[in-house]
Amino acid sequence: MAEKILMKGNEALAEGAVRAGCRFFAGYPITPQNEVPEYMSWRMPEVGGSFIQAESEVAAINMLYGASATGIRTMTSSSSPGISLKQEGISYCAGADLPIFFANVVRGGPGLGNIAAGQGDYFQSTRGGGHGDYYTIVMAPNCVEEMGNFPRRCYELAEKYRVPAMILADAILGQMMEPVEFDFELVDPKTLKAPDWALGIAAGRERRIVRSYDLREGKLELLNLERMERYRKIQEKETLHENRQTDDAKLVVAAYGTSSRIAAGAVKMARDKGMKVGLFRPITLWPFPAKALAAIAEHVKNFLVVEMSMGQFVEDVRLSVCGTARVDLYARPAGVPSADEVFTEIEKVYQGIR
Amino acid sequence: MKLINKKPSSLVDKPMRYCPGCGHGIVHRLIAEIMDELDIRERTVGVAPVGCAVFADEYFNCDMIQGPHGRGPAIATGIKRSKPECIVFSYQGDGDLASIGMAETVHSAARSENITIIFINNAIYGMTGGQMAPTTLLGQISSTCPAGRSVAVNGYPIKVCEMLAQLQGARYLERTSVSTAPGVIKTKKAIKKAFQNQIDCVGFSMVEVLSTCPTNWGMTPVQGARFVDEKMTPIYPLGVYRSPEQ
Ligand SMILES: Cc1ncc(C[n+]2csc(CCOP(=O)(O)OP(=O)(O)O)c2C)c(N)n1
Ligand code: SF4
Ligand SMILES: [Mg+2]
Questions:
Q1: Per-residue pLDDT tens over the stretch B164-208
Q2: Burial class (CB in 10 A: 0-12, 13-18, 19+), B14
Q3: What residue spans define the domains of chain B?
Q4: CA A179 to ligand 1 centroid distance, Å
């Protein structure tokens, strides 16, 4: 295990899913996530799983809907426009309580946008994304090693709560190469307990039905209320975040994913200059670590949000601090800021504080 | 006393919600009888469509999954590849299979996915209240072509069996009708073959059943059956379009 492998982010993502027991992958080519289906096309057969290049993202997510209904660990991946196409299917998975796992290697948008990194799919990821009332667990890695290690956690949470889970990455995380150490033992799918809702061989048991609808008077609300209770538990127990130098900070930069890596560099520059600046990085975007952020806001009264979008992530930061602190925004919609640029923004805000 | 007919054990014992004279109930029964006869009920997974047959997931006494409009073949693909020991069928209407889900239909046939598709062509969108289907006949009235389907506005009806017959992967394609008793018997034979093919790992099999929607055609059940024979069959000729023996 303790071996370090140099990998591209997309390959780490695919390999992480395989090691976590994924045995079904369906996807459709789109830059900047092509390495995922390419990797899976040989890796899946090698481990006795199935790989399908689907005719579209719509078909891919529906293949997943069928495959995961048999109780196995499945994966699809895409990038922004393709994830939009999958939304109806993801909503059905949420409605049918299927624990699917997928990844969005985000590119610039809207529309065809570009193939560089962006964070414009934050709302889509954290607010359900498709139609109807539901949430998806969203994990945001900020290095290649996390790309490889987060799939396992996604599967475990998805199965525990019977909800879809996803990794929200971007073109930089997908394309860059870094050493990876997988932090978990290889999962042999044969050792996983078959869920009591899985379709398949029905000998000796009642038939099972997987569906997302209930037309009986008042029943759908009851189903949704039960799911809401699960969402509440997830929000209570499953948030993950990272605080850096926030204890004595006068200003805390809030950023996730690639932005948090860049922001960390800028925070270091600020500290080197004697400025009391910290970093708050949510690792789960839904559930959002609101309590952790509110705790910081008890003693820090200034936040600077850095995001590669127009101001999506900033909404969760503002909701969390709930008016108890000032929140500034450095928005780079489909632009990647340099650490110097972030540092300049930090300086501007910091000067205002003193 | 000798028992000569009984409810198939592959059908759940509950009243179906289909209208009088509707073909869906007939085809459901045929599929259930075949599951019994082939003794595959306990290893069959059915995919219910969006359409009047959405409730198929309640009627068949086997594992069932209901999914998005038109995506049955993709869902069936996911199940079959994950559980090859299962017999997987997708039950679909004409709007489902030939309009919104055409890509999934064509590509599952091209891959020769080892699944069975039962395609109910009633030349109309039944569930949503009688809108034009890709299979609506020229001149046929629907709620979205109230003056009758015209070539200028709506183009031509899609002949699915003829189209799929161009694909090498489509191993078995047959069109039948349930408007007459002999037609029902032929339909059963065809559907049984489509299931047997899957057991024998032959590949993609589809039976297109010309069916009735008296409710949205504005007809009595008897008039509906006559419409199939007199108007639909000339446009959609019955017969085998591809067979594994070819
Ligand atoms: C994405 C999506 N679009 C549209 C609908 C609405 N809708 C429900 S059933 C149906 C048509 C079904 O017609 P068909 O497939 O011919 O089945 P039938 O009812 O005639 O058996 C439509 C358009 C839907 N449920 N989902
Ligand atoms: S509306 Fe048409 S297709 Fe639907 S159940 Fe009634 S007769 Fe059958
Ligand atoms: Mg129809």
A1: 999 999 999 999 999 999 999 999 999 999 999 999 999 999 999
A2: exposed
A3: 23-242
A4: 50
